[in-house]
Amino acid sequence: MTFEEAIAYTEALLSRKDLDESQLESEISALVQTSNGARGFFVCFLTGEWKLADAPSTHIIRALQSAPHAIAELLVKNLAMSTAMAIFHRRVGNEDQAQDSDLVARRTAILIEKVDLTEVYEIATQMRNSAIGNHGNYVSFLEKWGYDAEQKQAIANVLANG
Question: Per residue, what are the HEC states of the chain?
């Protein structure tokens, strides 16, 4: 499944009214086993108009926990990127987009707390260390996106809360 197909699949899946919670868990669990599936799921789930994203059910959390290696880095990167982008959007006077970024950050933080995976906390610590000390596994990620000192500090702060 391509990244784009995973986004479309997630949207269709979350829109279905005929699935019970265990069927939804099974579908999401299968989806997030691959990198494209997990990426597509998070893009759709975190940015869409889904009540489930604001209060994810136990079934969604279990589905995510079924693929800790596929989701751990994505959760941390989503939290870092949305935190940094909220700052960027506010700087350029786009409050609507800043609020969208805030929403993604808030939803991602909820997922991180609820999945409660060692892998997520290990990567969060590594990302935080890279943001603070400008060394480590995630320096190239932070440089790739051109985050400045204020954005890196905000990333470190949000990751310290985990």
Answer: CCHHHHHHHHHHHHHCCCCCHHHHHHHHHHHCCCHHHHHHHHHHHHHCCCHHHHCCCHHHHHHHHCCHHHHHHHHHHHHHHHHHHHHHHHHCCCHHHHHHHHHHHHHHHHHHHHHCCHHHHHHHHHHHHHHHHCCCCCHHHHHHCCCCHHHHHHHHHHHHCC
pTM of the model: 0.93
Average pLDDT of the chain, as a whole number: 95
Dihedral (C-alpha) 69, 71, 72, 74: value to the nearest 10 degrees? Answer: 130
